[in-house]
Fold each of these.
Amino acid sequence: MAAPLPPKPGLAAAAPAPVAVPPQGALREISPVFLCRIGQETVQDIVTRTMEIFQIARATQLPNGVNQSHAVYQDRFGKLQEHLRQLALLFRKLRLLYERCVEMTSDVQEAPAELLPFVGEELVTVRVEPCSPAVNQERQEVLEIRQKNQEMKVLMDQMRNLLWDVNAMLTLRK
């Protein structure tokens, strides 16, 4: 499939984890479960790389008139470019795994439209068995609180619009 990833920075001293690679002839017999596990590890690598990118971005000082060393800038830029390149490779690997898994399980999968809940449909009411009076009372209180919250939201929106109008009129008067 894809070439193995280079070791992550800071983990170079650690021994690489052994990966069970099936022989070339067995590539056609890889199960979708194995592909999904590889995909899960790939997603974890994507998250790790993304976190490292954000750490680099957080450590980068914004230009505020102080000149940073050009070498430091080039080093951080190089690290960022390498992480982005590795991230692109991981996404390509994930896409290939996904396509292969879909291909292998095409007879099992449902149509994507069936997987999306509530698309173009009304919510189906569910029959609820009678509850204790305490639960019914608590439910009623929650519904009342929701109603009050909705009314307060409407009032706050009206007040916000009123304040905008007043501020606009005061600005025009000046």
Amino acid sequence: MVGWAIAVHGGAVVDPNLPTERQEQAKQLLTRCLNLGISALRSSASAIDVVELVVRELETDPRFNSGRGSALTEKGTVEMEASIMDGVGRRCGAVSGLTTVKNPVSLARLVMDQSPHSYLAFSGAEDFAKQMVTTLFCLST
């Protein structure tokens, strides 16, 4: 692949009260994700595969407000969302209101690749995840 670039960020807001050790841990995770993406791009993985791979890493880490580290709703539950877009094919997939899916970005990818839809929410997204269980790992309810 020629002429690629990659950027990784860990959210829109930085808490100025975050302890220095926690800030350093976040930087280390972002560096690991960046290096993971660079390695995948160097091995000729497609851009969309690299995006999903790197976002899955962020979703798996509890220090980030995604996936495992999602902010809680007013009721103390997790409701996650994700979207993914493929500019080359002008395709997209998005999901929201998820409570049981481990990696929402992968479900969004499946919506894009395996369904006629571009967006599924709440019970529709959860039902689709159950249909795709052989491809996507779901948390137990």
Amino acid sequence: MALLALKEQLNVLLNSMFAEGLLDQQFQQLQMLQDGSSPGFVAEVITLFCEDSERILTELSKLLEQQVVDYQKVDAYVHQLKGSSASVGAQNVKLACAQFRQFYEENNKEGCIRALNVVKHEFYRVRNKFDNMFQLEQRIQAYDAKQQN
């Protein structure tokens, strides 16, 4: 019964992530690539996405703190973050990156700072949900392992 409850919690979490716009169909495509031979595939890809995104967000913050902003570098980082967000299905992060673009194309530093804050907010929202998802998956795997012994 506990295993069913954990699986139901995981399904509710995932459904809420889709309903809130945090994830799109690309995440489902990613899940379909995971099979018995690579049970940790999705977790590994998401972990790499989160680590890379943290690095990019730090670099963007540093760039926007400069007296003279290198908007080409801002463009490159935002483009990279948008691409990695799209590849894992982090829809709201991807959309926030797309909105960021108008500000760096206008060389609007204040607009870029506001846009970066939106991107960070959306990233941390999805990352926290991913953390919850991983915790549930680990509990399910541990319970499965216990049942097989």
Amino acid sequence: MSGEEARHRAESSEARAAAVSDIQELMRRKEEIEAQIKANYDVLESQKGIGMNEPLVDCEGYPRADVDLYQVRTARHNIICLQNDHKAVMKQVEEALHQLHARDKEKQARDMAEAQEEARSCRLGSSSPILPQAFAKVNSISPGSPASIAGMQVDDEIVEFGSVNTQNFQSLQNVGSVVQHSEGKPLNVTVIRRGEKHQLRLIPTRWAGKGLLGCNIIPLQR
């Protein structure tokens, strides 16, 4: 890999990490708005279960005396404003996810082209080196997850995951234990991808999805 390619890949990785951080911030804002909407609906519920549309005057046209009109009007106004905010945040989340997915597709296409070029170079050069045996395989990755940010791809075969390798691997619990004890800390991960060995730097982190990795790993038969 040339210096220019390495710089471009580093910049791309940083851009993806920033995009993921933006999405996580938007998701936190969304949850805050939803909590505020619920709190205002609770206010309406406490006022004789009045909702958004029930009249605030009695049958004779006088203001109702059995509810706190100021609280009801304020809660209704807040709900309308918060629902508009929620709609705007959800649109931002949708646009950010679309951009992230597009960036992932571009990176995957670029990686595929580089791998094909490297494979052609290998065929023209000496015989292929003997690759280490893998003990597990990645069969799914969530966009924007720590695994995706680290550059892991579906069908990557894992030969080293932190302190776990082919020699000491017994079950996926070994990998799970390493992940739990390495939250927020970088792990060296070695994978075989299309016949080539790749070194990755994976940081188990809490994100918008489940778990600390955002990928599914299955053991390989040995």
